Amino acid sequence: MSSGDPLLPRYGERSLAEVFPAVLAALGVPGPAPAIPLPPVRAAAVLLVDGLGAELLRTHAEDAPFLASLGGEPLTVGFPSSTSISITSLGTGLPPGRHGVVGISFRACGDALLDSLRWTSYGEPEPADLRETLPPEQVQPAPTALERAAAAGVQVTSVGPRAFRGSGLTRAALRGGQYRSVLALGDLAAGVVEALAGPGRRLCYGYHADLDTLGHVHGPGSVAWRYQLRQIDRLAATIADRLPQDALLAVTGDHGMVQVTRRYDADELTSLRLGVRLLGGDPRARHVYVQEGALDEVHAAWRETLGGDAWIVTRDEAVAADWFGPLGPHVADRIGDLVVALRGSAGVVRTVAEPVLAGLPGQHGSLTAEEQLVPLLVATAQ
Questions:
Q1: Do 283 and 296 form a contact (C-beta atoms < 8 A)?
Q2: Which residue(s) pair with 107 in the sheet?
């Protein structure tokens, strides 16, 4: 791979989708042989730290001595490298092309875009809750890893923010078992530790969001981001220190992050608007749905405008290059007629439709090492 090539996800080998299959195999849940070997255990916790990129962790290892001490080869997360896509890959053990959540916003039905983070309509002054119109269990019908574990007799617990209990994304990606709402790092640690205690096989999924938030607002690697990384290191060390003797903790992330300094405004630039029917995705990974018969003209206009700041391919080219992995039924229509992955420090923003997102310095979603690579760090009881 040259420096000008995208970093393609390692689906089926070492991507985020391989984590839960490996953990379930370690717990003795029947299934195919995992691509990532883990030792047999009675209990396991998977802690997802939103925004924990492997490149960022390596650069700032002095702020996370416990995590850095665990070592391990990084994973790729899949495309786009953003939260709802990655969490669904983690939760289902499937690449985006199979589970069908292919963007932060994407065409899920007709000419409407689904905001897959909030499970609401996209681009409206007052977004509508789409959990009844587009039930998450239908948009993503594959069984989740948590459902598989529970069906095999494993006691399953998810530990995360109260707002995510019963959310559309939770129902799509992480349904199964019990949900325990937490407020801060202290009860997140307590919730994970308690979920692993007691007899029988146990599985806990824990989620922490604040590193991603600070990376978006202040920039990845900023002082605020580094101080939050220090707290996460203490969180992971606290959980690991209290693991039962027959348990493991696996810490990973859903994407890395880059600093965006070069912005192309798709709400203002005529060259990025003509012939475009819908524009989904986020600033580092865009789905461009074009008007009938306009594909060639739109493709040429986006290439001329963005130049070397993006990889721009057709849907068929993206599928053939395995950006999304193998496609399941009806997923192809969810992918843009053009798929745009930004390079360097560039982003395609929307100052009218996405005014807050457009101004954030930290972004992610593309096929660079900074965004694609996340750690897989495994700790066992000492």
A1: no
A2: 113
- Sorted by where each starts, the structural domains of the chain and their CATH numbers stand as 16-259+367-380 (3.40.720.10), 262-363 (3.30.1360.180)
Q: Residue 143: is the preceding peptide bond cis (ω within 30°)?
A: no
C-alpha span between 259 and 26 (Å, rounded):
38
**What six digits make up the tokens of 107?**
């065409």
Model confidence at 70: pLDDT above 90: yes
Alpha-carbon gap, residue 333 to 321, rounded angstroms: 17
Residues composing the chain: 382
- Report pLDDT digits (tens) over 297-336: 999 999 999 999 999 999 999 999 999 999 999 999 999 9
Beta strands at 43-49 and 202-208: parallel, antiparallel or unpaired? parallel
Q: Phi-psi bin for 95: left (phi > 0), alpha (psi -120 to 50), beta?
A: beta
Interval 74-124: pLDDT, tens: 999 999 999 999 999 999 999 999 999 999 999 998 888 999 999 999 988
| Tokens 């929307």, located at residue | 350
Query: What's the token pair of residue 317?
Result: 């080219």
The mean pLDDT of 31-58, rounded to a whole number, is: 97
